[in-house]
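User: Please predict structures.

Assistant: First:
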Amino acid sequence: MSAFASSAPRLISTDDGSRAAAIAAAVEALGAGRLVALPTETVYGLGADATDGTAVAGIYAAKGRPSINPLISHVPDLAAAETHGRFDADARRLAQAFWPGPLTLVVPKQPGSPISDLATAGLDSVGLRVPANAVTRAVLAGLGRPVAAPSANRSGRISPTTAADVVAELGAKVAVVVDDGPCPVGVESTIVACLGDDVRLLRPGGVSRAEIEAVLGRPLDASPSGHDADASDEVLLAPGMMTSHYAPEAAVRLDAREVRAGEALLAFGPEPIAGQDQAVAVETLSATGDLTEAAANLFGALRRLDSSGAAAIAVMPIPAEGLGEAIRDRLARAAAPRG
């Protein structure tokens, strides 16, 4: 069966007593090879049965996603993950510390894993995650197979943090949208590669570098220097590593100290900047400078500013510590030149 839905998506909220119905509908649609939008603590994911190559192809088609960019496979627990990936001591330590949660581990793929080559982009490694959202874990357990689930948006666009964002982005390309409210973290999972002796940060995200290093008891190895998909093989280990990614239609100007004519403003912290009162539109990530609040608000704020009609979005400086590293990473990708 095609991975595409033939009509408007079935939107099911978990808040009105329909939790069991939402889980059952999602399991049924995934089992039939269709696409389902699932909530996680990070962003909404566009899910397909990771063992069904045709269904996985539907993800790439729906997103317009480059096939060189591998997908994260989601599983209900560490035991399930170990049937698909080989976990060394470091990987197991990180999984036990942060799962369920916003951490993806890239590990060697088990030879017998049925995860499709299309989902791993033909690599001999696999990205695995146990999400914290209880509804989605119930879907994963009910299906009994891993679910490949990148963010539920068109490739390179702003990631969705509400079910309404998913419907606006993908519409009838999704069979079922499970609405479990806004995503509390708001930036994608941190991706760490545990391949051999090295433990490397491939993408900053919802678990900070400092938290990971505290569990490992040593610094992470240097992250890849480039994010261009043609630069080196190492950037193919994980999704979300292309330079022009998470991009709104408007141009993005980073570390702005003033608002220029015709710009919207993505603000951070309590202090205004020059020209703020003349901005086309203003969204504040966190008026108090709280990075956790800022991460949760990031994609929604970008989406609203992009719909304001401004030609450009000025972004106030964001500190790089903690979740600020992930926020700055997403903003740098949004600001990257587009070919």
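Second:
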Amino acid sequence: MTFDEAYSGKVFIMSRKDYDAADVVIYGMPMDYTVSFRPGSRFGPNRIREASIGLEEYSPYMDKHLEEVNYVDVGDMLFPFGNAGKSLDIIEKYIDKLLADGKFPLGLGGEHLVTWPVIKAMHKKYPDMALIHIDAHADLREQYEGEVLSHSTPVRKACDLIGPENVYSFGIRSGMREEFEFAKQSGMTMEKFNVAEPLKKHLPKLAGRHVYVTIDIDVLDPAFAPGTGTAEAGGITSKELLEAIMQIAKADLKVIGADLVEVAPAYDPTEQTSIAASKFIREILLGWTT
């Protein structure tokens, strides 16, 4: 079940080797074909893996050690370069396989459009699912410059599939006027600018439910994460995102999978974006999968 060991050559820290025995599967989705500003997020998954080598295996936030989680990093998916539609099909079929095998999918992006086929696969198994979306951008467009497959559309597609009342967006500070109007009128939940405090307010509404969580690294202010394709000033701190991850870990939810997307290493020579992303993945492994 390993995709591309020759290309990847790296795995997330303390990854096991036995797919069959693993409870959690980390996989990379190196696609950035529909981005509207700066490409390069296809290199994100491997940089997150490389940055993880600098992490401690123990989390003082969760008071847990990575040895307590049985996970395997299968590497990056192989996509037909430039073919977004076929690449999305590959993702959906692979998530179907992970869910059939009883695995917790933990994806590394890649642009945010890669979340859409994961949601489609999740919805087939969990038709009652809700979505927690943490991002700077609304991602509620129906199309971008005539293209319906765009990194600005996945949350709108999710609303159409699972119902807007089951979509909860946090940290939003950018989008077209029409996107914000749709959020108001559709019945979805959109909390602007902040994440941790409004998340605390809404988590009780999701008690007992199956929830998928998608995090776009650009929810962080560029001061904390400059290495992303569509940086947006006025974001949250790394500390606030860690707090949000811990809140989800402590809530009465059934987290069924997650992804972290839009790390674009070329724009961050300090590697602080990849370093932060790898830490978030550690906390997700320890907080949401055990």
